Amino acid sequence: MKILIINPNSTEEMTQAIEQTARAYAAPDTKITCLTASEGPKAIESAYDVAVAAFHVLELIRKNENNFDAFIIACGANPGIDAAREITRKPVAGIGESGMMTACSVAGKFSVISPAIPGGTALGWEGVRALLLERRCASVRSTGKGVLEGFFIEKGELVEMLYRTGKRAVEEDGADALVLLCAGMTGTKEILEKRLKVPVVDGVISALKTVEQFPPRR
Fold this sequence. Notes:
Layout: E1 2-7, H1 12-25, E2 31-36, H2 47-64, E3 70-73, H3 81-87, E4 92-94, H4 95-106, E5 110-114, H5 120-130, E6 137-142, H6 147-151, H7 155-173, E7 177-180, H8 189-196, E8 200-202, H9 203-212
Parallel strand pairs: 1-2, 1-3, 3-4, 5-6, 5-7, 7-8
Helix pairs in contact: 1-9, 2-3, 4-9, 7-8
């Protein structure tokens, strides 16, 4: 199975992190290709950024539609996902959507961890509402750092930041699972689970496993 993962922002280092996670968790017969929306925003931090990124996501899917069996949109805001499903009959998963649905399958209540951006918690709640999951979402909590600020810090500092935010969601909000909304948080799932003792959902993995369920008919 050939899967195209699209990073809707133009930060190549984030694409590399996404690819590293996807390759680590992919099935043996899955071939992963990751592309960066090179003309998109450096980070997706507002509804405007989502709209701009959506155009580039759709262009990459349109240009590559015949070369892949499924597509993943690697942004928690899932830019362009509905339109993408109109232009291809192949599976399209977004990491925000897949992450929240995965959390619902393993926990009664989940919290979303979002970067500290102008539309951060708003975008998180928008995703929750789009899936009609308000009753399952304990909270949307901000990390205190923006997308790129959080991504480019040392890995240990990133883990500590996510741990502090997740601990409050578990202890104060009653979350039974956590969803890492931003692709820039990928690669931290396992260590956070060991420390927080609850399921931590990395949307890159969730989206990957979602589309792997639908191999192409030959």
